[in-house]
Amino acid sequence: MAPKPLTYILLYFPIALVASLVLTAAKEDGAANVMRKGLKTFGLLSLAILGGGVLVWAVGRFV
């Protein structure tokens, strides 16, 4: 039985958030600084993926 698409969406949030925090922790000092910049990185990554998805959908739908 293959996983449902909703499962992929639900797994995106913890995996991408942890990856953003780990990559930020390698560059920054201090827990507050790591959290702030890690959450900012997670937000930008999510925005880029969402924007790309909308662009692909629009091209596929209207072109």
N-C termini distance: 34 Å
Mean pLDDT: 92
> Rounded to an integer, what's the Rg over CA atoms?
15 Å
Structural class computed from helices and strand pairing: mainly alpha
Low-confidence stretches: none
Shape: flat
Indicate the percent of residues in helices. Answer: over 70%
Q: What sequence of helices (H) and strands (E) makes up the elements?
A: HH
The percent range for strand residues is under 5%
Largest sheet: none
Number of strands: 0
Instruction: Specify the number of helices.
Output: 2
Walkthrough of the structure:
This protein is 84% helix and 0% strand. It has two helices and no strands. It has helices at residues 5-25, 31-62. The longest helix has 32 residues, at 31-62. The N and C termini lie far apart (34 Å). The model has no long low-confidence stretch (mean pLDDT 92).
Structure at a glance:
The protein is an all-alpha fold. 84% of the residues lie in helices and 0% in strands. It has helices at residues 5-25, 31-62.
How are the elements arranged and paired?
Layout: H1 5-25, H2 31-62
Helix pairs in contact: 1-2
What features would you highlight for this structure?
single chain; mainly alpha; 63 residues; flat; 2 helices
